[in-house]
């Protein structure tokens, strides 16, 4: 799209803006009428650990949002020479889960408790048992129930609780709503109705009846909306909160607020059934869009939804590339000891590609990349390990291969539950994140781990802010009855190039042999955690 057309889009409000609150960065992406990014802005921030709680202050939330927006507006001014006065539609998203509770005056009762807090184990286990539905510690309902179990005074004063995305949306529009994908990280969703599960809400109310609170759960939880529905508009106060210069006009439509898992699905075109995506960086998670519910409850699997309400199984692991990166840095240090200046992109490429020359099963080598605990394999702490027997085939190729394989070891453990125990079918998995930066290698390893074609698109790096901008655009521009999947296929990703790698039978067999060794060797990791202090 040419500069003249972009200017016309901006002046006539044929744009959509997405703003996402990530763990370390708030990012804004403005797209034009063809859904491609035309301007962006960002603000870096960090959580604080206060009184044993990981949190962000309200001041940090609003200053971060305003700075991020101003940086995007400046980008518009610098590139196109015009002020940003109106936008076709806006959307807000944020890291999923967590707990923000408010009283009747709209005041925050306790500091925001983020997804990172693992302080709700008792509540998580009890709710999972009562609902017969996995309730992870990160979920908002686990935080609420844990506060009740802890006899926290604030609970009796709660009139509304929500997530970060829901809070920002509420303050800018006056609407207490959530997109269904984000809502599914608060409380289980009934896939048939697209709303919170009424049976489980009744069970929760019964569970806390003896507390004699003045509220029931349905009184204090947001209304659930599906992608494409209107979720209100920027109020006069909201417009000034977003744009402190007062340039932005109120009345701009806002789409349902979503979580970063949902926007990641949109940004990778992974919302249709039998598709999925995997994000592999410091941590790794995979999402599989299901055709039907799972037969059993699995503590390793989180059940959430796409932004348009399809059931999704999510496998989330704490560890992925940190140990791999540490080993690459050792090779960098080695090279620099010889006076060789190292290009890190080239070093990663050389070492990753070397892994493709290794034995299918890594020559009998074993590694664990556990910088931190890993709930899927039952570890509360981690110890990075590399292990071999005297007769293992210890070569550079096998060493790099085993470290690539183990970066997906915990993920495969969870995905095997889906693909092998539950018989979930996936036609394609979209990959994004640091593991896939070296062309072809991460994809080939991932395809071997899941025995499924893995694709990487050029736009995968645009991230969740682009994903929520697309949801805002979908709300404004969808045709009559047009599904989100069809909209993405035809109006966003049509003609976009992607590279697909099919699983190689040799690699699949080799990964299966590795994961058997990985599973059998877990007592070694347990001993390291117990004795290596």
Write the layout of secondary structure elements.
Blueprint: H1 3-11, E1 16-21, E2 25-31, E3 37-44, E4 48-50, E5 53-55, H2 58-80, E6 89-94, E7 100-102, H3 121-131, H4 140-149, E8 160-162, H5 164-173, E9 177-179, H6 180-183, E10 189-190, E11 195-196, H7 198-207, H8 217-220, E12 223-225, H9 236-242, E13 258-259, H10 260-267, E14 275-280, E15 284-289, E16 302-305, E17 311-317, H11 322-337, H12 344-355, E18 366-368, E19 385-387, H13 396-406, H14 409-421, E20 428-432, H15 441-450, E21 454-457, H16 463-477, H17 484-491, E22 498-501, H18 505-520, H19 522-531
Parallel strand pairs: 1-6, 6-13, 9-12, 14-20, 20-21
Antiparallel strand pairs: 1-2, 2-3, 4-5, 7-8, 10-11, 14-15, 15-17, 16-17, 18-19, 21-22
Task: Please give a quick description of this structure.
This protein has 533 residues and is an alpha/beta fold.
Separation of the first and last Cα atoms = 58 Å
Structural class, from secondary structure content? alpha/beta
Shape: globular
Beta strands, count: 22
Question: How are the strands of the biggest sheet laid out side by side?
Answer: 16-17-15-14-20-21-22
Helix content: 25-40%
Strand count, sense and closure of the main sheet? 7 strands, mixed
Taking all residues together, what is the mean pLDDT? 95
Q: How many DSSP H or I helices?
A: 19
Question: What ranges have pLDDT less than 50 throughout 5 or more consecutive residues?
Answer: none
Strand content: 15-25%
Radius of gyration equals: 24 Å
Protein name: ATPase
Organism: Petralouisia muris
């Amino acid at each position: 799209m040419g500069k003249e057309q972009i200017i016309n889009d901006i002046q006539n409000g044929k744009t959509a803006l997405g703003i996402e609150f990530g763990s370390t960065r708030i990012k804004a992406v403005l797209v034009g009428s063809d859904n491609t990014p035309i301007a962006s802005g960002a603000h870096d921030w960090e959580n604080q650990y206060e009184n044993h709680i990981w949190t962000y202050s309200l001041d940090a939330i609003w200053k971060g949002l305003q700075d991020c927006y101003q940086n995007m507006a400046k980008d518009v001014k610098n590139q196109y020479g015009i002020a940003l006065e109106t936008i076709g539609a806006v959307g807000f998203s944020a890291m999923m889960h967590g707990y923000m509770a408010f009283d009747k005056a709209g005041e925050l009762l306790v500091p925001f408790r983020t997804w990172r807090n693992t302080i709700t184990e008792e509540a998580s286990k009890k709710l999972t048992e009562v609902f017969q539905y996995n309730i992870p510690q990160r979920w908002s309902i686990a935080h609420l129930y844990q506060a009740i179990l802890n006899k926290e005074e604030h609970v009796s004063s709660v009139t509304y609780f929500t997530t970060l995305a829901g809070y920002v949306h509420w303050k800018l529009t006056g609407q207490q709503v959530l997109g269904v994908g984000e809502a599914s990280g608060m409380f289980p969703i009934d896939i048939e109705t697209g709303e919170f599960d009424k049976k489980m809400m009744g069970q929760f109310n019964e569970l806390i009846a003896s507390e004699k609170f003045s509220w029931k759960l349905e009184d204090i939880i947001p209304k659930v909306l599906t992608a494409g529905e209107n979720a209100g508009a920027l109020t006069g106060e909201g417009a000034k909160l977003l744009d402190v210069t007062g340039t932005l006009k109120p009345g701009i439509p806002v789409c349902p607020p979503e979580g970063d898992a949902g926007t990641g699905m949109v940004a990778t075109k992974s919302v249709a059934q039998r598709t999925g995506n995997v994000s592999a960086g410091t941590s790794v998670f995979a999402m599989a869009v299901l055709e039907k519910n799972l037969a059993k409850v699995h503590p390793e699997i989180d059940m959430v939804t796409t932004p348009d309400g399809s059931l999704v199984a999510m496998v989330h692991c704490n560890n992925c590339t940190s140990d791999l990166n540490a080993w690459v840095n050792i090779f960098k240090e080695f090279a620099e000891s010889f006076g060789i200046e190292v290009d890190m992109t080239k070093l990663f490429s050389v070492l990753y590609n070397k892994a493709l020359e290794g034995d299918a099963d890594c020559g009998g080598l074993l590694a664990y990349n556990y910088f931190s605990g890993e709930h899927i394999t039952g570890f509360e702490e981690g110890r990075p390990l590399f292990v071999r027997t005297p007769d293992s085939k210890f070569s550079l190729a096998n060493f790099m291969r085993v470290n690539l394989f183990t970066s997906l070891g915990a993920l495969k453990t969870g995905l095997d539950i889906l693909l092998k125990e539950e018989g979930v079918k996936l036609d394609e998995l979209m990959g994004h994140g640091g593991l896939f930066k070296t062309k072809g290698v991460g994809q080939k390893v991932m395809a071997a781990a899941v025995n499924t074609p893995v694709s990487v698109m050029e736009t995968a790096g645009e991230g969740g802010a682009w994903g929520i901008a697309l949801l805002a655009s979908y709300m404004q521009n969808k045709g009559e009855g047009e599904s989100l999947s069809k909209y993405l296929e035809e109006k966003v990703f049509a003609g976009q190039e992607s590279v697909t790698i099919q699983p190689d039978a040799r690699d699949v067999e080799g990964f299966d042999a590795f994961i058997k060794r990985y599973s059998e060797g877990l007592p070694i990791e347990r001993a390291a955690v117990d004795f290596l202090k």
